[in-house]
Write a structure and sequence with these properties.
Length: 364
């Protein structure tokens, strides 16, 4: 059974279905025989719990830069300087990006071209989107849209970008600025409106504009106003999700629309979804700007977490190396001995507890 585990958690069923439709759109639009065969091999390997796979990821998360023009609350440890052993700030080269696309484009339906940085801070980001588009790969970008650039909207549309996640957490400057420190809400809305205008001018239905609104105690009263604003501007979808704050954060950062320890929003939704496992080591990978490969988007700063580096060799040489094999064995079977970051994940801890049930069953 397929899931949308690679999508953002914390949403109501209607919005979750909207994200699934976008994945299906990318699947349909970029489908080739080779990609379909790779997809089938991937899902077969996942379902049969193989540790070494004969396929490649069909969705990639790629961070071209970890730098940002804002200082959002609790994001990336407040943009502090990196400590010893941590990844410094930097940008991916266009040539490095092209090399990745040349190797993986035959298998990819989509690239999420963002991580803990602001993609459009990289002056070559538009060229990267266009290059992936020319190689039949859909691209999604998440941006705060805080830029003074009269040509950006037109270039975004011309690049072929399929999805633009508009990160904007408030509809009043007071709540917006409290969350998105240094941000200018008026500028962000002006730029997203211009993207929509340029999209209409080009007669295009892309990029799909997906407004991501992180709900806190101090902005939850703006939800209805945000819905109205989205309709007014012509934004395609607005998602109200739970941001992830440390447990010692002040109460004002936690909305009462969520259970404090839940990852799922309760707006227009019944019971919270249950986490059932991890598909990342089969379907996707996270690649940092410096080429460091991680199994997912957690703990990206610590270089020791990397499973390998695509700028020192091919992705294929990493995908079935010892770290990936041991991580898949842990995730799929609860097998001990894994020393990677996957061993510290709550999902694998649940898996190991379940593997102690009689006859090796999960107990679920």
């Amino acid at each position: 059974m397929l899931s949308i585990d690679l999508a953002t958690h914390g949403m109501n069923p209607a919005v979750a279905f909207g994200i699934l439709k976008r994945h299906l759109y990318a699947f349909y639009r970029h489908l080739t025989v080779r990609k379909l065969l790779n997809f089938c091999r991937t899902e077969y390997s996942r379902l049969t719990k193989k540790t070494s796979v004969g396929s490649f990821p069909y969705i990639l998360k790629l961070e071209t830069t970890n730098m940002c023009n804002l200082s959002c609350a609790y994001c990336y440890d407040g943009r502090r300087p990196p400590l010893e052993g941590e990844r410094p700030y930097g940008r991916m080269s266009l040539e490095g990006f092209k090399g990745l696309i040349d190797e993986l484009a035959p298998y990819l339906f989509k690239i999420n071209l963002y991580g803990f940085g602001e993609p459009f801070l990289d002056p070559q980001c538009i060229d990267m989107i266009a290059y992936a588009t020319r190689h039949n790969v859909g691209v999604g970008v998440s941006s705060n849209m805080n830029f003074v650039d009269d040509t950006l909207a037109r270039r975004i549309v011309e690049s072929g970008l399929e999805v633009l996640i508009f990160s904007c957490h408030g509809v009043t400057q007071e709540s917006y600025r409290k969350f998105m420190v240094k941000g200018n809400m008026g500028l962000a809305f002006k730029n997203i409106s211009e993207v929509i205008a340029q999209r209409e001018l080009a007669g295009s239905n892309t990029p799909f504009i997906d407004w991501q609104f992180c709900v806190t105690g101090f902005n939850q009263g703006e939800i209805e106003a945000a819905r109205a604003r989205a309709i007014e501007l012509g934004i395609d979808q607005v998602r109200f999700i739970k941001p992830f704050f440390p447990e010692d954060a002040a109460q004002e950062w936690f909305s009462d629309l969520f259970p404090r320890h839940s990852s799922t929003i309760l707006v227009n939704q019944g019971d919270a979804r249950r986490q059932t496992g991890c598909s990342w080591p089969y379907r996707s990978a996270y690649i940092n700007y410096d080429g460091g490969v991680l199994p997912c988007c957690k703990d990206t700063r610590l270089i020791a977490n990397d499973f390998g580096n695509v700028f020192r060799g091919s992705f294929a040489s990493i995908w079935n190396n010892e770290r990936y094999v041991s991580s898949r064995a842990l995730i799929a079977r609860g097998q001990a001995g894994c020393q990677t970051m996957c061993a510290r994940c709550s999902i694998t801890r649940d898996k190991r507890r379940g593997s102690s049930a009689p006859n090796g069953t999960s107990g679920r």
